[in-house]
Write a structure and sequence with these properties.
The complex is a heterodimer.
Chain A: H1 7-32, E1 40-42, E2 47-49, E3 55-58, E4 64-67, E5 86-91, H2 93-96, H3 106-116, E6 123-128, H4 134-147, E7 150-157, E8 174-176, E9 182-184, H5 193-201, H6 205-217, H7 243-254, E10 261-265, E11 271-273, E12 276-278, H8 284-296, E13 300-303, H9 305-315, H10 334-350
Parallel strand pairs in A: 5-6, 5-7, 7-10, 10-13
Antiparallel strand pairs in A: 1-2, 3-4, 8-9, 11-12
Helix pairs in contact in A: 3-10, 7-8
Chain B: H1 6-21, H2 26-45, H3 49-68, H4 72-106, H5 125-140, H6 150-158, H7 160-163, H8 171-179, H9 186-219, H10 226-258, H11 275-281, H12 284-295, H13 305-323, H14 327-348, H15 350-353, H16 362-384, H17 388-399, H18 410-427, H19 443-457
The chains are: A alpha/beta, B mainly alpha.
Chain lengths: 361, 470
């Protein structure tokens, strides 16, 4: 160095810089960083859940703060204390809906609709976790029915392929096709539980985004290229015949409960694609197969395609996407939740799940 | 290999250690450097290393032959061979399918249809071709002495910091530095680190943060409302600048840490008050290259006004085509050429001629900024849009408001406001404060903050450098 400052001065500058920046990003993370999910084991539903009372802040898509109650139910402290019969809305991250505030989530909107029509003897709550599938609902439905008085199960499904076996993204229970069709409870432990707990305890959630999630996904390569990055991609295409596997899982699900089960199919429509807003569903054929199999197995089916498309045509609003993420893509926004809640409400009344109720919304 | 990946950090750390150990022995140092250069390139695709070696060898040989010959005609033949070899390689890889596609369009009425070829565009070919051309042309013009050591020349052609996306370093700038021993210095490493971190911040936090918004809007331009397109156009202007200036800063920083100086490539281009000033601040090494090796070679401003203007437009069209093999790039070049001509004509009007010497009123300055910025932003629409049709839709929507999907990306608004504030500070009296001295006590805090912001809020998926595709 050209000037004569002792090295200890430079060292202290760098140490100060590090601590200042750490403090800076720590403060910033309280406003703009997602919290880390922590998990505790629930003996009631025999799986890992978000600890009751824990709060999740979501900023990477949408803007939501939600809290978890007993048995992983968002915004409901204890479902066993709900005095009225309920409908449950099941789903994956679309039902989990961390992206919006509690009051705008579909179970709350549905409950508000009941109250607006003076139906005070009925409630709704939602159960959902990212990565869950029908295999999980198959295992969980009887466990929840033991705790709460459930009148009907509505299951949100966004891709028919999610109902097929051997999904590469299955996170919890899995639906396998070999050696025979079967549903297996993997009892998988969420990754890095202790690190998650530590980071959450000290509000160091930003370290999860910046370090842990990067490190755990980093695979080093030092060999010269070309590197075929596509060779590990698993083809998730439909098998030649979807009837048999779909029928198996629907049949199994139907025999898990005596309560009505209704699938709510929510396609990724309308969507901005190829310089236009598309209303065309490429899953159309498999949706028909799925719907027919649902009816065959005594399961209801609501197709949200028309509701989503007509809402866009009337208001110009998409059911998915947020201003801070990709518009028309991703999870349901406030409008999406409202439209689905409305469709479920109509179905509840039309199928007389609530006797003598009249639709006025 | 990308500058922003763990493998690169390890590679560069090892390289610095090796260069430090052998800092007294320039020969070993250079051997390490050539190995590092070739490894860096081979990491992407080792098969294209041959192309660099062929280019290096042919131009080195031409340079040698040029120095030995006094015959004008033979020297002309040699330089023609050198230019042809380089341009044929560039044309073959970069423009072949463009020519085929254009030919198909022309001959469509005659049912003529040639299929395009499955050609991989070699990484950084536009940059190293222009770099190596500076050598042979400068030797031909007797501006520099030919390189006497092939190793030096091979390092110059394949110099890894500038390999992928510039700056376009000239032989006269880098070769002399390779010939002398350069010891690693702590202060150089610190200065290099600072530039690298600021560049990475511009790339990861700013450019990659804006990419999802601009990509979606420009890929679906017909769907969005006028205001959204304006926001996307402004965002793209910032994204492109941050992406490319970020890369350039990282390249300069890496070179500096190794003890080599390479010229700066950007100087707050959006503060320009005219298009000619813009090209003195944007991609400086390319605009200087175009000026020295195309515009001046065509006659520059020595052959009358009409010829000057046509030279300007032609040079800019070539500059546009250098960026990409598409007619939108050619049009973008033409557009800037015309803007430069208008700027020249404007300056010829007597009352505007001495504008630089007059006291410029704030209103005049503001309107100059505004017109220049508007011209540049509209130009970027052609640069970014996928085809003429989409570019025209975008420009039409920008100037004739229409409804459509409304999307006000909050991050984009934040970045635009931040850029306005930073540019305002830069153009004020306290503008120098933006250049943080690396020895200042607060400099590490700034750098660490930038690193944290990239790590925590930067997108998890890397978007390739825009200019690396050229």
């Amino acid at each position: 160095m050209s000037d004569k400052k002792p090295y200890i001065v430079y060292l202290s500058n760098w140490l100060f810089g590090f601590f200042f920046s750490f403090l800076f990003v720590w403060v910033l993370s309280f406003f703009f960083c997602d919290t880390v999910h922590t998990f505790s084991y629930s003996t009631e539903i025999e799986t890992w859940v978000r600890p009751p009372g824990s709060i999740h802040r979501h900023r990477s898509e949408g803007w939501g703060d939600v809290w978890f109650g007993r048995m992983d139910v968002i915004g409901e402290a204890d479902i066993s204390l709900i005095k009225t019969p309920s409908v449950v809305i099941w789903g994956d991250s679309h039902m989990e809906a961390l992206q919006i505030e509690q009051k705008n989530r579909m179970p709350q909107v549905l409950t508000d609709m009941f109250r607006a029509d003076n139906i005070n003897t009925f409630s709704a709550f939602g159960v959902g976790m990212s990565g869950e599938s029908i295999a999980d609902y198959y295992l969980k439905i009887p466990r929840y029915e033991k705790v709460a008085e459930i009148k009907a199960h509505y299951i949100i499904i966004c891709d028919i392929s999610d109902a097929l076996p051997d999904q590469s993204t299955a996170a919890h229970a899995v639906y396998l096709s070999e050696p025979a069709y079967r549903i297996v409870d993997t009892k998988k432990v969420p990754d890095h539980i202790n690190i998650r707990k530590f980071l959450r305890k000290f509000e160091l959630d930003f370290l999860w985004a910046s370090a842990v999630s990067i490190l755990k996904d980093t695979k080093l390569r030092f060999m010269p290229g070309p590197f075929d990055s596509d060779k590990n991609v698993i083809d998730d295409g439909y098998p030649l015949s979807v009837n048999e596997p779909l029928n198996f899982i629907l049949h199994s699900l139907r025999h898990k409960t005596e309560k009505p089960i209704i699938f709510v199919y929510c396609p990724h429509l309308p969507a901005i694609k190829d310089n236009t807003v598309t209303f065309e569903n490429k899953e159309h054929d498999s949706v028909d197969v799925f719907k027919n199999l649902c009816f065959k197995n005594g399961i209801g089916f609501i197709d949200m395609t028309n509701e989503f498309c007509s809402n866009y045509k009337e208001t110009g609003k998409f059911p998915r996407g947020f201003q801070n993420s990709l518009v028309s893509q991703g999870h349901f926004n406030r409008d999406g939740h409202r439209i689905i809640a409305k469709a479920i409400y109509k179905n509840i009344l039309s199928t007389k799940i609530i006797p003598n109720a009249v639709y006025t919304n | 290999m990308r500058f922003i990946q763990t493998e690169f950090y390890l590679f560069f750390f090892l390289l610095l250690i090796c260069l430090y150990i052998f800092s007294d022995n320039n020969r070993i140092r250079k051997s390490i450097l050539i190995f590092a250069n070739y490894y860096f390139y081979a990491y992407w695709d080792w098969r294209f290393l041959g192309l660099i070696i062929i280019t290096s060898f042919s131009d080195y040989t031409v340079g040698k032959a040029l120095s030995k010959s006094n015959s004008t005609s033979f020297r002309k033949l040699l330089i023609t061979i050198s230019i042809l070899i380089n341009l044929c390689i560039l044309a073959g890889f970069k423009y072949c399918n463009f020519f085929i596609h254009s030919l198909n369009l022309i001959l469509e009425p005659f049912n003529f249809d040639l299929s395009t070829l499955p050609i991989i565009l070699p990484l950084g070919i536009s940059f190293y071709t222009f770099r190596t051309l500076t050598y042979t042309i400068d030797v031909y013009r007797k501006k520099i002495e030919p390189c006497s050591n092939f190793l030096d020349y091979a390092i110059f052609v394949s110099f890894f910091p500038t390999m992928v996306a510039g700056p376009i370093v000239r032989a006269s700038e880098l070769l002399p530095q390779l010939q002398c021993t350069t010891a690693l210095k702590y202060i150089h490493i610190l200065y290099g680190l600072k530039l690298f971190v600021v560049g990475a911040f511009l790339k990861i936090f700013v450019a990659d943060g804006l990419a999802p918004f601009t990509n979606t809007v420009f890929d679906n331009i017909a769907v969005f409302s006028s205001l959204t397109i304006w926001l996307a156009s402004l965002s793209y202007s910032i994204q492109l600048y941050s992406d490319f200036a970020g890369y350039s800063m990282m390249a300069i920083g890496i070179s500096k840490a190794m003890g080599y100086d390479i010229p700066k490539n950007f100087d707050f281009p959006y503060l320009s008050t005219s298009i000619s000033e813009f090209w003195k601040r944007w991609h400086i090494t390319l605009s200087n290259w175009v000026r020295d090796y195309i515009y001046i070679s065509l006659g520059g401003n020595r052959k009358g006004k009409i010829r000057t203007y046509s030279n300007l437009i032609f040079s800019m069209i070539l500059c546009g085509l250098w960026h990409g093999a598409a007619w939108t790039f050619a049009f973008w070049g033409f557009y800037h050429g015309v803007a430069l001509v208008i700027n020249h004509v404007w300056r010829l009007i007597p009352k505007h001629r001495n504008v630089d010497k007059e006291v410029i009123t704030p209103l005049k300055e503001l309107s100059s900024h505004f017109i220049t910025l508007l011209t540049v932003i509209v130009g970027w629409v052609f640069f970014r849009a996928d085809g003429f049709g989409n570019a025209l839709i975008a420009v039409n929507k920008m100037f004739y408001p229409v409804s459509g999907v409304v999307w006000y990306y909050p991050f984009s608004i934040f970045i635009i406001l931040s850029f306005i504030i930073i540019h305002f500070i830069k153009s004020s009296r306290v503008g120098d404060c933006l250049d943080i001295p690396i020895k200042a006590w607060y400099a590490p805090a700034f750098l660490f903050c930038m690193i944290w912001l990239c790590l925590v809020f930067g997108p998890k998926e890397f978007t390739p450098f825009i200019y690396s595709q050229f």
